[in-house]
Amino acid sequence: MNDFQVMGVLNVTPDSFSDGGQFDNIQSALQQVDLMVEEQVDWIDVGGESTRPGADFVSVDEEIERVIPVIKAIKERYPTQKISIDTSKAEVMEAAIMAGVSLINDVNALQAEGAIEVAVKHDVDVCLMHKQGSPQTMQNNPEYEDVVQQVLDFFDQRVEACLSHGMSAERIILDPGIGFGKKLSHNLKLISHTATFKQMGFPVLLGVSRKSMFQDLLNRPIDQRLAGSLAVVQFAYLQGADIFRVHDVAETIDTLKTCQALIGAANE
Length: 268
Hints:
CATH architecture: Alpha-Beta Barrel
Strand order of the largest sheet: 6-5-4-3-2-1-8-7
Structural class: alpha/beta
Number of strands: 8
Number of helices: 10
Largest sheet: 8 strands, parallel
Order of helices and strands: EHEHEHEHEHEHHEHHEH
Shape: globular
Distance between the termini: 17 Å
Helix content: 40-55%
CATH class: Alpha Beta
């Protein structure tokens, strides 16, 4: 049995950095879902607002119009498929949960008014992500004195906020937010300290798939970043990461299963 989970990205947006405009209607979205289900994805992460650097703000109504029909269509075709909602808006969270979502994946770590209350009310899993700044400004020369410690401190604050509102600790997942208000050096430091975040006692989610850190590190365009993405997946898995948010589901699962088999053989 796998001790990892793979979360497949499904952006129903016109402007996401890697797949914007590809799955912004139900038919194309379901074709991608069919592929990911065939590849044995654990979670399908539906997003209706791009969080890439420089992305435009989307209203609550527009975001709901983008994601809810797709979530309902997925649940109709695959009633047992686990779905997460990639949003920071409490109203979108509530609508998505009512449509069948069981995990809130929030780049803003439930800091919006009413967000924690929605999660507690419906008793769903939550992923708390760290970012510095907003999508419009976060890559404008981000600075840290100690990026690992500052992310740890942020997690302490957000976990405490959730627990104080009555959330069960078993519902919480942590994501250091690779690429969200970080330079390459910050991203590499955070990934290299995956085990440090794991020591907080919560599952760790990592999302590095096709990100701009591979442009900086390898000088590769978006469609040539798979090797870098998989290298990080393998390294982070060995450090204890639990959930991997990716565009390339089959390749990620193959990498993790191979890594798992090697670990098993070494321990025989």
